[in-house]
Structures are given as structure tokens and as C-alpha cells.
Amino acid sequence: MNYFQPRPKTNFNVTVDIPGSKSITNRALILSALSGKNVTLKNILLSDDTKYMIEALKSLNNNITLDLQNKTLEIKGNKNPKFDNLEIYIGNAGTAMRFLSSYLATGTGTATLYGNERMNQRPIKDLVDSLVQLGVKVEYMNEIGFPPIRITSNGVSSKYVEIDCSKSSQYISSILMAAPNFKSPIQIKFTSRVVSRPYIDMTLKMMKDFSVDFLEKDNSLFITPQEYSCSEYLIEGDMSSASYFLAMALISNSTVTLNNFFKESIQGDSKFLNVLTEMGLEVISFNDTNITVKGVQNYNGIELSMNDIPDVAQTLAAVALFAKTPTKVWDVENMRIKETDRISALKNEILKLNGNFEEFQDGFLIIPKIIDEYKGDFLETYDDHRMAMSLTLIGLKVPNIKILDPNCVSKTFPNFFEEFNKIYLGE
């Protein structure tokens, strides 16, 4: 049986290295492809999701050279690609599935995007509906509303598109990034409340970094045909990945230094630092690319909407188990359509530990117990990297926690357990 067993550990001092951001890496790859120019990407993340994106772009005749030692990638982008009955496999990489759909729409030909079993359960109808509005032919190969999909395109000439952004911000980011390569100016209208708005802001900031302008007005974005241009781009450390080590400090009353943690981050999940400091985490020092934080002996729970930062809700759930007061989270219904139904998965595993977990359609309530009332067990990860990393934190306080299928962290943080194990060095 394959599992990782963390051991209880408190009051330590450790320095960890945060990998490059998956969200930024995959956006930078698409923007570079759309530019049709030579771009150097520095501090890239090489994980399952980004490797699927790289291989997909290679199959679409983007010339890519990797320097693994220096975490650098050189890409000669293929603007308005041409393809013929191409089949592209992207595993369970949601960003690859969604971003590639609109990239294909800027080109000419027919291509099929398909993934693993879980990807075939993750909805894509809202994005497909918008692509169809744009004049792109999209066919569902199996179940309507879900991958795999076959896209037939001859470029985009439409001047208006509506998009439902209530389930995923990635649908908007996908069309936004492709829009400068459409044949006509376009208005992109949001028809619902936007989830994970910071991810859209990240996309727009990166588009500006690649020399593209836009206008936002009245729940719409207006973009004209433009040339992307950027010769070199530095990718920040991943704030979602950093969340586990910020939480580690608070849970274990320890001092943790995080390298590659950008002070001026464009990632929404950087706000998780504010959540934890409100609960009691102390910031000892904060420089341009690293931070040192210190936990406390006791801390209170918190109640908040995590609509802007749903990817760190599981991290907060682990923190909540050891607080003095309850923690309530809402506005995260889209957690249910991620790598797994993350709300139900958290409930299943926390109940195994004899924890309290009340499930809502859009969130959860955790009422903490004293440490001795929790009991160790084998914990399922559901092939979800964030389940694995957040549940591992519980082992800092509860003995006999065993994390099944730990290798699923390769999706975004392949060396997570090496960094985690630094706390045991010198024992």
C-alpha cells in the first residue's frame, strides 16, 4: 500500500522552497503561443498539469526548449495554428482543457481535447456555449456538457459573446487570452456573478505584461485585435502551494521561512496570508521574494466567504481542526467540480478522524475538538493534489495519519513531501 505518514511535530524552525505557480505558468505558455514570438519563461513549474500543456503546445507546432536545471523554457509561439484531426490528451489538467479550447478557436482545423475519467466529469458547457456563439463548431464526443470535445475552427470574426462565469473563472480567462487574436474587436459580457475574480485579474495583468490593452465597463471587457509581445517573463512562486507551509507554521506553533514567496504577488491566493494572520499567525519578516512567519500556541477559528480563494479552503479546513473556536466557510460551491468534490471529500476524511464537519452546498462548518479526541487513520486523497497536501498538515498534531496515493501531488507540487520532510531533518 502506497502512503505517506507524517509524524507529529511542533516548535520547529524550517526553510522551504515554493515552486513556480501553475496558474501563471500555464497562462504564460498560452500567451507565448498566441504571441507567435520568441519568449523566455523563467522559474517555470514542471508538474503534471504544466507538462500536459507543454506537450499539447508542441503538438500544435510551438517550438519549445526546456532547461530543467535552471527552470527556464524557451518558446517560439505558433500564432493562429493550423491542425488536422489532431488528438490532444490533457489528463486532469483543467487549465489546459479550457485554455487550449480558445487557443484552438484562433486557428484553423479540427482537434479533439480529451482527458482522464475525472476530466470527463468536469463541466465545460458554459465555455463551449460561448465558443459556439463565436462561430466555432464544438461537438461533445460523449456526454453533453462534458469533455471530450472536438473543435473545428476557421478563426473568430464575431464581435460579441456572453459567458456564464458562475462555475469557473477559467472560462473567462480562456476567451480573454485568445481575444486579441480574433479577427474583429469583441465585447465579452459576463452574465452572472463571477467566481474566483482574482484569477481573472491575474489573467488581465499578464495580458498587460504581454503588451495587450483592454477596456472593462458594465460587466464587459472590450478587446481589439492586437499583437502580444514579451521577450522574457518571470513566474512567481505558487501561492496555493505556499498555503500549506503558512498553515504549517500556525498549526505547529513553529517558525517557517518560505522562499519564492512574492511580496507583490498577482495571485489571489496570496490573500490567504491575511486570513491566517487574522487567526493569529505572526509575520516576522517579509522581503520581495521570501517571508518568515511564526505560529502561536492557541488561535481562534474564522468565518468568511472564500469565493475569491476557493483553492485554499482545504488548507483552512486542516487549520480549523485545531482552533479554539469554530470555522465556517461559504461561497465555494465550485469546489465540487474540481479534481474531486472537495467539500464532500473533506467531510469523509475529517469524520474518519472523529472530527466535526457540517457540509453545506456552498461550504462547511468545522467545530474543533481537543487533540486527544482525534484519531489517526488512512486518509483518501481522491487523486486530488490539494486533498493530499492539506490532509498531511493534520499529521503535525494527530498521530498515525497515513496519506494514501501521495504521488497525486505531482499535479502541481512534485516535491511537496521533500519540502515537508525538512521539519524532521536532524532528529
Highlighted features:
UDP-n-acetylglucosamine1-carboxyvinyl-transferase, Chain; 427 residues; 12 helices; alpha/beta; 23 strands
List the total number of helices: 12
Q: How much helical structure, as a percent, in the residues?
A: 25-40%
Whole-number count of domains: 2
- Overall radius of gyration: 21 Å
For the largest beta-sheet, the strand count, sense and barrel status come to: 4 strands, mixed
Strand content: 15-25%
Low-confidence stretches: none
SSE-based structural type: alpha/beta
Kindly report the spatial arrangement of strands forming the biggest sheet: 2-15-17-16
Tally the beta strands: 23
- CATH class group of the largest domain: Alpha Beta
CATH architecture of the largest domain: Alpha-beta prism
What is the straight-line distance between the termini?
A: 26 Å
Shape: globular
CATH 4th-level superfamily of the largest domain: Enolpyruvate transferase domain
On the 0-100 scale, what is the average pLDDT? 96
Q: Tell me the CATH topology of the largest domain.
A: UDP-n-acetylglucosamine1-carboxyvinyl-transferase, Chain
Give a verbal description of the structure.
- The protein has 2 domains: 207 residues, Enolpyruvate transferase domain (UDP-n-acetylglucosamine1-carboxyvinyl-transferase, Chain, Alpha-beta prism); 198 residues, UDP-n-acetylglucosamine1-carboxyvinyl-transferase, Chain (Alpha-beta prism), CATH 3.65.10.10.
- It has a 4-stranded mixed sheet with strand order 2-15-17-16, covered by helices on one side.
- Helix 3 links the parallel strand 6 and strand 7.
- By secondary structure, it is of the alpha/beta class.
- Helix 2 runs parallel beside helix 3 and helix 7 runs parallel beside helix 11.
- The mean pLDDT is 96.
- It starts with a strand and ends in a 7-residue tail after the last helix.
- It is globular.
- The chain has 12 helices and 23 strands.
